[in-house]
Write a sequence for this structure.
């Protein structure tokens, strides 16, 4: 199912957009673990999302998007709905401005993902894309937010029907080097504990400017929920959330 080789035309469109708005793009903000993915990576991500079956009718949610994959995706493809949630208001304003100028249908929502999303608005998404802060706690929390935005809890068994679950995808970027296999194991443990199965894993799919702590690259996982997903068991680990800070008040210092 997965396809991520871009055509020349797609390449030109996405690189053209990035170069057009380069000067206005907010600089990466370390306290939110922002390390921008390269343009090539953003293009591959967009093409991969575009190859998901029936994407034009699917609801697509970006849990954080300072890499601007939502813009690249909408430039190349259509989806039923595209929403970006981020804590960083600068990123959201930038995405809104570019969307307006280019006529791209992207909704934005400012939110700290350490807290649950409002259930009334975030419950029917089909695909979530995210490149979370690089700690297992953040990974766990992001996955929980992704699950919550697609599968509602309670005793409604229909929500867990296989045909419903088989339409849900979580596309995750997460990195560890070959010397940190325990970190990779931790990722598998988090996924298993949440009842998610790895359908695809592409090693070193993502390249970054900076992000030396993960060797400036990360893997891409395509995950799906299994009937073992249990929303009631989901919990938030709040300690040591970001790689660069131990306290959970990310907005307190800019730098
Ligand atoms: C954590 S960064 C990971 C690196 C990624 N390549 C990047 O720079 O965008 C991914 C996104 O998560 C957002 N983010 C960080 N902490 C967040 C939080 N508590 N709630 C919502 N979004 C957050 C960042 O602003 C960024 O857009």
């Amino acid at each position: 199912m997965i396809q991520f080789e871009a055509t020349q035309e797609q390449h030109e469109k996405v690189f053209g957009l990035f170069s057009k708005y380069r000067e206005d793009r907010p600089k990466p903000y370390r306290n939110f673990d922002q390390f921008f993915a390269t343009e090539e990576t953003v293009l591959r991500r967009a093409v991969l999302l575009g190859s998901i079956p029936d994407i034009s009718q699917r609801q697509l949610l970006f849990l954080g998007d300072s890499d601007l994959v939502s813009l690249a995706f909408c430039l190349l493809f259509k989806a039923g709905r595209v929403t970006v949630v981020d804590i960083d208001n600068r990123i959201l304003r930038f995405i809104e401005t570019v969307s307006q100028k280019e006529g791209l249908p992207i909704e934005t929502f400012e939110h700290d993902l350490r807290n649950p999303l409002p259930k009334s608005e975030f419950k029917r998404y089909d695909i979530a894309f995210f490149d979370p802060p690089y700690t297992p706690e953040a990974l766990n929390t992001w996955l929980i937010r992704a699950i919550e935005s697609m599968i509602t809890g309670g005793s409604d068994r229909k929500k867990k029907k296989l045909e419903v679950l088989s339409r849900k995808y979580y596309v995750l970027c997460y990195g560890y080097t070959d010397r940190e296999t325990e970190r990779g194991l931790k990722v598998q443990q988090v996924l298993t504990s949440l009842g998610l199965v790895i359908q695809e894993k592409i090693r070193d799919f993502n390249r970054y400017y900076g992000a030396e702590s993960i060797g400036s690259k990360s893997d891409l996982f395509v995950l799906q929920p299994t009937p073992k997903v249990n929303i009631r068991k989901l919990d938030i680990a709040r300690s040591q959330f970001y790689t660069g800070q131990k306290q959970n008040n990310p907005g307190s210092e800019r730098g």
